[in-house]
C-alpha cells in the first residue's frame, strides 16, 4: 500500500487527532517511506482536505467542526439525489442486476471474526452497493464529484461506524433501509427513492454531532 493510501486510511480511522502535527521523522518511521513519497502523499491529502499545509512549519491534520459536518453531509445528499434520479432514468437491466447483487452481498455481512473485520467488510460492501446505484447515472464527471465528496465525508462517517455498525440492531436497521431503497429504485419511483436516499444518508449526522460535542469540537 502506498504512503498516501496508508496515511489517508489512518487519518480517516482517527489514528491522528484533528489538528495534530504530522512530523516527517515520525511518518518516515511509521510508514517506512522516504521524505519524497511522504511529501507527495501529504500534498495529495491537502488536495483531499484531510491535511492542512502550514507555511514553513510542515503539516497538520485538518480540523473538524459541526459546521463542516453539516455542510458536507448536506452537499453529499444533494448530489447523491441528483445522481440517483439520473440513474433511475438511465439505468438498464445490467445496472439493476448489479444493484441487486451488491445489496445481497451487503445483507450477508452478519457474522465476522472480529469487530474490526466486521467494520471493514461491511463498509467495503456498503460502498460497493451505493457505487452500484450511482453508476447508473452514466456521468463520469458527476461520479468524480461524488468520489471527492465521499472522501471528505469519510472521516466524519467513521465516527458513526465506530458507534453503531458493531450493533446487530444497527445492522438490521440498515439492512431494512437498503432493501426499501432497492424496492423503490427497481420500481423506478424517483420521488420515493430520493426521499429514502436522503433520509438514509443523513442518519449518521445526529450521532456524529454527539461524538464531536463530547470531544469538545464545536
Automatic annotation (TrEMBL):
<dbReference type="InterPro" id="IPR000524">
    <property type="entry name" value="Tscrpt_reg_HTH_GntR"/>
</dbReference>
<dbReference type="Pfam" id="PF07729">
    <property type="entry name" value="FCD"/>
</dbReference>
<protein>
    <submittedName>
        <fullName>Transcriptional regulator</fullName>
    </submittedName>
</protein>
<keyword id="KW-0238">DNA-binding</keyword>
<dbReference type="InterPro" id="IPR036388">
    <property type="entry name" value="WH-like_DNA-bd_sf"/>
</dbReference>
<keyword id="KW-0804">Transcription</keyword>
<dbReference type="InterPro" id="IPR036390">
    <property type="entry name" value="WH_DNA-bd_sf"/>
</dbReference>
<keyword id="KW-0805">Transcription regulation</keyword>
<dbReference type="GO" id="GO:0003677">
    <property type="term" value="F:DNA binding"/>
</dbReference>
<dbReference type="Pfam" id="PF00392">
    <property type="entry name" value="GntR"/>
</dbReference>
<dbReference type="InterPro" id="IPR011711">
    <property type="entry name" value="GntR_C"/>
</dbReference>
<dbReference type="GO" id="GO:0003700">
    <property type="term" value="F:DNA-binding transcription factor activity"/>
</dbReference>
<feature type="domain" description="HTH gntR-type">
    <location>
        <begin position="1"/>
        <end position="64"/>
    </location>
</feature>
<dbReference type="InterPro" id="IPR008920">
    <property type="entry name" value="TF_FadR/GntR_C"/>
</dbReference>
Amino acid at each position: 500500500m502506498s504512503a498516501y493510501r496508508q496515511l489517508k486510511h489512518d487519518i480517516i480511522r482517527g489514528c491522528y487527532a484533528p489538528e495534530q502535527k504530522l512530523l516527517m521523522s515520525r511518518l518516515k518511521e511509521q510508514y517506512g517511506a522516504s521524505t519524497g513519497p511522504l511529501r507527495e502523499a501529504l500534498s495529495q491529502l491537502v488536495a483531499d482536505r484531510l491535511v492542512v499545509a502550514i507555511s514553513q512549519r510542515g503539516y497538520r491534520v485538518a480540523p473538524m467542526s459541526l459546521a463542516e459536518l453539516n455542510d458536507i453531509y448536506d452537499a453529499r445528499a444533494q448530489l447523491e439525489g441528483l445522481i440517483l434520479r439520473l440513474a433511475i432514468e438511465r439505468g438498464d437491466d445490467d445496472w439493476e442486476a448489479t444493484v441487486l447483487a451488491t445489496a445481497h452481498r451487503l445483507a450477508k455481512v452478519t457474522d465476522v471474526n472480529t469487530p474490526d473485520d466486521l467494520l471493514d467488510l461491511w463498509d467495503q460492501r456498503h460502498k460497493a452497493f451505493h457505487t452500484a446505484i450511482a453508476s447508473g447515472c452514466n456521468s463520469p464527471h458527476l461520479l468524480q464529484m461524488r468520489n471527492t465528496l465521499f472522501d471528505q465525508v469519510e472521516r466524519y462517517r467513521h465516527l458513526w461506524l465506530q458507534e453503531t455498525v458493531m450493533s446487530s440492531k444497527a445492522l438490521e436497521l440498515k439492512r431494512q433501509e437498503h432493501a426499501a431503497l432497492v424496492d423503490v429504485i427497481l420500481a423506478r419511483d424517483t420521488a420515493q427513492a430520493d426521499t429514502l436516499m436522503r433520509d438514509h444518508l443523513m442518519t449518521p449526522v445526529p450521532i456524529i454531532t454527539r461524538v464531536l460535542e463530547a470531544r469538545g469540537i464545536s
